[in-house]
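Local shape tokens:
==================
===
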Amino acid sequence: MKRRQLLRELEQHGCRLLRPGAKHDIYWNPITGRRQPVPRHTEVDEHLARHIRRHLIGEQ
């Protein structure tokens, strides 16, 4: 999955960039209060993308 697509999905669900990093950016969901690192690679493995979505927005 492309990183841009994942970030677009996260931002549509209210997630915000908490802080940028060299290898990972930290995204935060103010509704749930959860934080999750997102790698800065252009491609994100589908399993990792599913984990990030589940953790931040509760997607099943």
User: Anything to note?
Assistant: The chain has one domain: 3-57. Helices lie at 3-12, 46-57. Residues 1 and 47 are 10 Å apart (CA to CA).
